[in-house]
Amino acid sequence: MYTKYSIEEIKEKLKNCLSYERYIHSLGTMERAMELAKEFGLNEEKAEVAGLLHDCAKCLPTEELEKYKESFDECEKLSTKTWHAPVGVIVAHRDFGVEDEEILSAIRWHTIGKKGMSDFEKIIFLADKIERRTRETDFREKIENALNERHNLDDAMLKSFSITIKSLIKRKLPICFQTVDVYNNLLEQVQVKANENCPS
């Protein structure tokens, strides 16, 4: 057990603190996280908990989230949409009894990401983007196709960041420097792997 509550108890608690749509999204993320964990040889039980709880702070009022602003990265301060990730770590620990650092870190970085993410952090990040219950098919399939082409998490991560950056530019919204750093780092990793697999 990675939390003091059972999965069913967590679901019941989440129903009381999330909107219906966000709850359904959390179920979808949990399901997809478990699939990815199995596919890539990672801990499925941890993935179940992290996927289910990744958005546990999403529906808190902005003024409540703002109380924890000191724990935010500078990038996260640019948009209130990312505040739930660092606060989610606090909520997961305080309200759901999660102490496992890998689960908490996956919750922490499921929005803006970071350089050097672990495979476990990547599958939670991706499960959030490609869950089948609420994500639009076109968006989800672009990332799924990148994932399946070479069975590579970095390819899928790169595609996800590429879509995000294009969307921010189109909407004339600020792009956090960390997002650019992560994109560049992933691009480098993907290119290195492609060269390694390319016959000389």
Provide an overview of this structure.
It is a single chain. The chain is mainly α. It has a single domain, classed as Orthogonal Bundle (Hypothetical protein af1432). It is built from ten helices and no strands. The protein has helices spanning 7-15, 20-39, 44-53, 62-65, 84-96, 101-108, 119-130, 137-150, 153-170, 177-197. α2 runs antiparallel to α3, α3 crosses α6 and α5 runs antiparallel to α6 (101-108). The model has no long low-confidence stretch (mean pLDDT 94).
What structural class is derived from the secondary structure elements? mainly alpha
Shape: globular
Which percent range fits the helix content? 55-70%
Order of helices and strands: HHHHHHHHHH
In the CATH hierarchy, the third-tier topology is known as Hypothetical protein af1432
- What's the CATH architecture name? Orthogonal Bundle
How large is the share of residues in beta strands? under 5%
Keywords:
mainly alpha, globular
Brief digest:
The chain is 64% helix and 0% strand. The chain has 200 residues and is mostly helical. It has a single domain, classed as Hypothetical protein af1432.
Summarize the helices and strands and which ones pair or pack.
Elements: H1 7-15, H2 20-39, H3 44-53, H4 62-65, H5 84-96, H6 101-108, H7 119-130, H8 137-150, H9 153-170, H10 177-197
Helix pairs in contact: 1-3, 2-3, 2-7, 3-6, 5-6, 6-7, 7-9, 8-9, 9-10
